[in-house]
Amino acid sequence: MAAGEEGGQARQIDRAREPAVAARRRKPQGWKCMPFIIANETFEKAASFGVAANLTTYLVKRFSIGQLQATNITNIFFATLNLTPLLGAFISDSYLGRFKTLAYGCFATLLGILGVTLTASLPALKPAICNQTSQLGGHCNSPSTLQLGVLYLSLGLLTIGGGAIRPCSLPFGVDQFDQTDEKSRKGLNSYYNWYYATSTAALVFSMTVLIYIQTNISWAIGFGIPTFFMFFAIIIFFAGARFYVHVPPEGSIFTGIAQVFVASFKKRGLNLPCSRDISEQELMLYNPPTRGIRIFRLPLTSQFRFLNKGAIMRDGDINDDGSARNSWELCSIQQIEEAKCLIRIVPICFSGILCFVALAQQFTFIILQAFTMDCHLGPHFEIPAGSVTSISLIALTVFIPIYDQIMVPLVRKLTGLEGGITLLQRQGVGLVISPISMVVAGLVEHKRRDSALSNGGISSMTVLWLAPQLVLMGIAEAFNAVGQIEFYNKQFPEHMQTLAGSLLFCTIAGANYVSTALAKITTKVTARNGNTSWLTENINNGKLDYYYYFIAILGVLNFFYFLVCSHYYQYKVMSFHAEESIKTHAKEAAATEIEIVTSAPSK
């Protein structure tokens, strides 16, 4: 009788598991899902960036916040917005999965945009309007605690939503393609193209049309449109829910990395096998089969060899089935090499921070410069100050196909490399152009300030004088930022692709935090002994050009740091049998469950 009850319970458990198994084995629908996912990303991007891109102008013009404080708030907001994807990637991979993470992120973003819209609409949540003369004289009423509280809460919700959406949106689309099918893989390439094309179009729309409406028509309408966009994005996202494949969470990658360091430390007194040949040493260490088809075996390397001690096998370390008895005392060679990949990449990642410090100026001080310049294009049209930075985005968009279709084939003939130059060389070119853009910015600012001081505070120079530095910034981003994306996705282990996608955002976050710190330190240091600070509330009274030159000098020093890191960097390699392993795993996947490689190409 007991046996019958146990059998019945087992059948009940099996039936309970069937929906989950079916969900895992559901055939990916490919392009059936793409209209929903791409439309969601497009409207979400237009909505969130439609608020963030013009934040400095909103804080100064409508919230009567001082220029330096507004610059710091914008830097901190963008820094936090770009740092939270790291947490979002961790939560998605460890607990929620990409679908739930995206869903929660969309609702948080909607609430954040709605909150900002209310600060522009409700009289109780916005300060009294202050004219430009009062602003320059510092006589405007400061926003109340309630008004600032609602604004900061709304920006906080935007950072939470961005942290959930950014690392998951592109990989979730990749999940919908069966990479064991050749036709589906071709569809995946088209998905990448459409994803970036529509995202770029959304950014251009936000930085032109939405900013024009906000600045020249109404802040309430200008923020209300993104609110509607975000609401529409959520409806579209859930409309396609019946088609989606949900890849379950795979566990935290950080746990495996921590286990490598702990196991290596515990075995620090042991000696590695005496063989000089690293391939022979590999045979003497713990090296079980890799987990699933997404993880291709990495061979043992001699760099950071002290970590190899974590794979030394002692009596009692191995269970009868070949698994490790305690993962905090015995790690596989695969785990160790994955940890080494992260150690090698982090120093390169730091070099990108100062590159983005230069690029971050286009959303802060460059907008403040535009306030004091002639923004007219012809007698009837005036460019909003916040839209000036779209020049950088346009330069980036135009340069990438030129680089990909013209420059790469030409350089490939000289170097023999598939990409024309290596991944690190591409980043290095961006690091060279970045300080050059700051030198150009300094020269233009010197001319602008002289013109403004001789014309009552408003320069007669056209705002298009800012175009050369913005074009250089766009080209620097095309080399360094896009190079970073490609570098992370190719050099990170396959199951760390979500982390790879969030690492660029972390670099941008670090740049914004560094930019905030530099501005505060520069203001304090240069104002000593009664001197006028380089950075003042009225930029006509300061020395903003000196600040740009200072960032350029830091960029040059950062380039030499990058050269040192590049010299010692070892590119990730796969074992000789990796290609055959991929083919074998692809055949196995057709009979088991779906595993998707969540890799993202360069923009």
TrEMBL record:
Keywords: Membrane, Transmembrane, Transmembrane helix
Top-level lineage group: Eukaryota
Region Disordered, residue ranges: 1-21
Transmembrane segments: 102-125, 145-165, 193-213, 219-245, 345-371, 383-403, 464-483, 495-514, 546-564
Pfam family, one: PTR2
Gene Ontology molecular function: transmembrane transporter activity
Record's keyword annotation contains Transmembrane helix: yes
Localization annotation: Membrane
InterPro entries, per the entry: MFS_trans_sf, POT_fam
Annotated Gene Ontology cellular component terms: membrane
Membrane topology designation: Multi-pass membrane protein
UniProt similarity note: Belongs to the major facilitator superfamily. Proton-dependent oligopeptide transporter (POT/PTR) (TC 2.A.17) family.
PANTHER family given in the database record: OLIGOPEPTIDE TRANSPORTER-RELATED
Name of the protein: Major facilitator superfamily (MFS) profile domain-containing protein
Species the sequence originates in: Panicum hallii var. hallii
Taxonomic placement: Eukaryota, Viridiplantae, Streptophyta, Embryophyta, Tracheophyta
